[in-house]
Amino acid sequence: MAWFKKEPGTAGKENRVRTPEGLWIKCDGCKEILSKPELEQNLHVCPRCQHHFRIGARARVGLLADPESFKECDAGLRSLDPLGFKDQKSYLERLRAARKSTGMEECLLSGTAAIGGFPVSLVAMEFDFMGGSMGSATGEKVTRAVERAINARVPFIAVTCSGGARMQESVLALMQMAKTSAALGRLAGAGLPFISVLTDPTTGGVTASYAMLGDILIAEPKALIGFAGPRVIQDTIRQELPAGFQRSEFLLEHGFVDMIVERKNLRPVLIQLLGYFAQADAARH
After folding, report:
1. Per-residue CA distances from 49 to 9, 27, 45 (Å)
2. Which of 134, 207, 210, 278 could serve as a FRET partner for 198 with CA atoms 20 to 30 Å apart?
3. Longest dimension (CA), the chain
């Protein structure tokens, strides 16, 4: 049985310059106050310190895919509430709030696209949807995207941004780790590449499953990537962690990722990699 379905001013202030609300934002990296229009023009990367702000799934696809090439698949796939889970709010209440705020049915945007003219199966996670947590529908969407890649004989690309498996679905969410990993095993057996793009944060069950199984692992600068968070690990082992632990640069130095790519360069790098894969496939045939 599947646990998802389709489906006003005061005196003395008259001469002050009034700043439109929401026009400025503080950088989490350098703490500078930035203009939102300037930040958007710079792909949501701080022009002072190069801190990469989180961006949504649709913005991510818009940066990577060729114009008008993305065709969404499985848009109506959504998780149910098989456990009747409730903490401070019911799971259904949280799902409704997430759907309303993001305009998505689930935390994963999935579809087919072209990048530099190369056809791909592409998925991207939406962190604003319950922390990008992987539930039953999320795992199903990833699996279907992999299967589309196999059927069309195209590369699979996943952009991850997640807090891990969705606790409100308990073991049903944990099962998605095995399910997505098995699908990627079939992709590898078909001789098709998987490029995994790790953004901040990529943690928990997503890191422990499909996110780290890429043939090429690309990370954005200073992204938090790991299973348990550094504070949890430090409290558990009661030792100080190395500087930069679980950040992209630390992982690159220790061989856990293949490259760190700034956001402005990600699409060109993907096009270059897809070109290599296409050449290798042509040589085999």
Report:
1. 36, 9, 8
2. 278
3. 79
Q: For position 3, what pLDDT does the model report?
A: 53
Write down the pLDDT at residue 1.
45
* CA angle centred on 141, ends 185 and 210, rounded to 5°: 40
Closest CA to 205 of 175, 233, 236, 184: 175
Per DSSP, the three-state class of 40 is helix
User: Which pLDDT belongs to residue 4?
Assistant: 53
Tell me, what's the pLDDT at 281? 87
Does the residue 68 lie in any domain?
Answer: yes
Eight-state DSSP code of residue 267: H
**CATH number of the domain where residue 262 is located:** 3.90.226.10
Say yes or no: 62 and 193 in one domain.
yes
**How buried is residue 176: exposed, middle or buried, by Cβ count under 10 Å (0-12/13-18/19+)?**
buried
What does the angle CA 157 – CA 37 – CA 68 come to, to the nearest 5 degrees? 35
Answer for the pair 114, 54: CB distance below 8 angstroms, yes or no: no
Q: Which residues of 8-38 are buried (b: 16+ CB within 10 A; e: fewer)?
A: eeeeeeeeeeeeeeeeebebebeeeebeeee
Q: Which two tokens stand for residue 84?
A: 């009747």
Same domain, 134 and 147: yes
**How many CA atoms does the CB half-sphere of 18 hold within 13 Å?**
8
pTM across the whole model: 0.90
Per residue in 137-162, pLDDT (tens digit) is 999 999 999 999 999 999 999 999 99
What are the CA-CA distances from residue 169 to residues 20, 42, 92, 94, 227 (Å)?
Answer: 42, 38, 11, 13, 19
In this structure, the answer to whether residues 46 and 122 fall within a common structural domain is no
What tens digit of pLDDT does each residue of 12-40 get?
Answer: 444 443 445 679 999 999 999 999 999 99
Contacts of 75 (CB under 8 A, 6+ apart): 105
Same domain, 76 and 34: no
